[in-house]
Design a protein that fits this description.
Largest sheet: 2 strands, antiparallel
Structural class: mainly alpha
Radius of gyration: 28 Å
Shape: flat
Order of helices and strands: HHHEE
Distance between the termini: 65 Å
Helix content: 40-55%
Mean pLDDT: 88
Low-confidence stretches: none
Length: 102
């Protein structure tokens, strides 16, 4: 389904582009050519029964997920000091805040 000139105007508006009529016509031609030459042939391929890949190279060999173990650990002292440097009041590595509930 090819795009219409109104589609190009909407896309240009969303992208905050000021396109004159000639630029809009050229953009319409380029985008419709892309859909015709690239997207439509890809949509024609039967992918039923094909399981999605988490990584493109997983088809060649098993790819482990590169996630670190989720473990609790104390924060780095320099990060704590940097955060507390901006505090109005701090004591023993903690923020001191005014009491709001009596």
């Amino acid at each position: 389904m090819p795009l219409q000139p109104s589609d190009i105007q909407r896309i240009a508006s969303l992208a905050r582009l000021n396109l004159d009529a000639a630029e809009q016509a050229a953009m319409l031609e380029q985008i419709n050519a892309f859909f015709t030459e690239v997207v439509e042939p890809m949509r024609a391929v039967d992918t039923s029964g094909v399981e999605p890949l988490a990584h493109p190279l997983a088809v060649l060999h098993e790819m482990p997920l590169r996630l670190r173990e989720d473990e609790a650990r104390p924060p780095e002292a320099r990060l704590r000091e940097a955060a507390l440097a901006n505090a109005a009041a701090a004591q023993d590595g903690l923020f001191i805040v005014p009491r709001v509930v009596e």
